[in-house]
Amino acid sequence: MSGTTCVVRLVPLAVNRDQAKQCETLRQEAGRCWSDMVAAHVASRSGQWLSANDLMHEFKGDYALHSQSIQALAQKLEANVQGTRERRSNGDMDIEYPYRPKEHQTVTWKDQGIRVREGWIILSNGRGREPLVLFLPEEYRFADIRKAELLWRADHFELALTLDTGVSNPPLLRRVMTAGVDLGEVNIAAVVAEHGQGVVINGRYLRSVKRLRNKRHSAYAKKMKKCSPGSRRMRCLLRRKAQASARFERQARDILHKASRQVVQFAQAQGVAHLAVGDVREVAAGPHKGRHQNQRLSQSYRRHPHPSRLKSKEKIYAVNAKTREVSKDPARKPKGNGFAQSKNRFWRVRFADIGTRLDHQHAARSRARRAHSQYETQGQTVDPYFPG
């Protein structure tokens, strides 16, 4: 599985009342298991911290879940602890280790607990317990399903299927060719290779989707303000708001997936083996900038999902993507007040967009040069940040 390409497919579930109740019960049972694991891990932090194996052996058989589902929760907790430890070692002391209980949690089934029979996927919940039986679309009935996860998406259940395509991952290019990736709001990404070739991916459609989502949320909030809590009208508005939120989330996810595919395809066409991606998560940190500006920065930078999209495609396109810290200084000093030189809105927007593109290209090229200087030492590939 590690040497072949695996893809994830999200399957919306059309479940009846009994199936929905069983899905809800399983997610609550997984949340109870997660909460107990977190409490046990918090208690062990004064001495020897519990590992994933310790948690699995301690809680195995105590819940109405498959043993590998409990193992997946223990491994997930260990991964969260390890990621928190790495971020704290890098100076981010504001992040805390997992400590909060959860009412619901994602249920994971590995390959040994998955069976497909006559168009139905059967997910085992342990010996002597009723399995979760769901309808499986025809395109996935003969696929090699390695993992299944039960998710809740705003207004419906989803099944995330990890499929092994059987296609071997292409080897990583050994040549030392690097490209810098600068992330932004107006333009999702600007990519510049060492030899000067570059591409700028426009993100105005993503901004319009986010803006429309905010307007819809505001309209629903204004209507719900006039309703009594728990009334039929309130429940109806909450359901419609969840449906709209899920629709906008799917649109944004599709836009980001297409943008990340354009980035890695450009890198593959230019013979780039390493991508130095600017880490923009800290751009939104700092003093209060006003309600509207804080909302825009939070939605655009604080949780920018583009690096994770690139990371998910690096094995398919033989590209190594790593994040780099973004400089606090501006990419270039603006020359004159070109924005105020024209009163025509078209030329003001045109000039602002060109200036933004120049900023992105300058920052991406400088990031590529800094990353390349760390790769190449006396004709050998030596890079502590991008192990090859």
What characteristics describe this protein?
2 domains; disordered C terminus; five-stranded mixed β-sheet; Nucleotidyltransferase, domain 5; alpha+beta; 14 strands; four-stranded antiparallel β-sheet; 8 helices; 388 residues
3D structure, described in words:
With 388 residues, this protein is of the alpha+beta class. It folds into 2 domains: 4-168, no CATH class; 178-381, 2-Layer Sandwich (Nucleotidyltransferase, domain 5), CATH 3.30.420. It has 8 helices and 14 strands. The protein has helices at residues 17-44, 52-59, 67-89, 204-224, 232-269, 291-302, 306-317, 345-375; strands at residues 4-12, 107-110, 114-117, 120-123, 132-135, 144-153, 156-168, 178-183, 187-193, 198-202, 274-279, 320-325, 376-377, 380-381. A 5-stranded mixed β-sheet has the order 10-9-8-11-12. A 4-stranded antiparallel β-sheet has the order 1-7-6-2. The chain is globular. It starts with a strand and ends in a 7-residue tail after the last strand. 23% of the residues are buried. Residues 326-358 and 374-388 have low confidence and may be disordered.
CATH architecture of the largest domain: 2-Layer Sandwich
Biggest β-sheet strands, sense, barrel: 5 strands, mixed
Count the beta strands.
14
Order of helices and strands: EHHHEEEEEEEEEHHEHHEHEE
Mean pLDDT: 79
User: In terms of per-residue confidence, which ranges show pLDDT below 50 for 5 or more consecutive residues?
Assistant: 326-358, 374-388
Number of helices: 8
CA-based shape: globular
Structural class: alpha+beta
CA distance, first residue to last residue: 20 Å
What strand line-up does the widest sheet have?
10-9-8-11-12
Backbone CA Rg: 24 Å
Number of separate domains: 2
Examine the coordinates and then state which fold CATH places here, giving the name of the CATH topology of the largest domain.
Answer: Nucleotidyltransferase, domain 5
Strand fraction equals 15-25%
> Which bin fits the share of residues in helices?
40-55%
CATH first level of the largest domain: which class? Alpha Beta
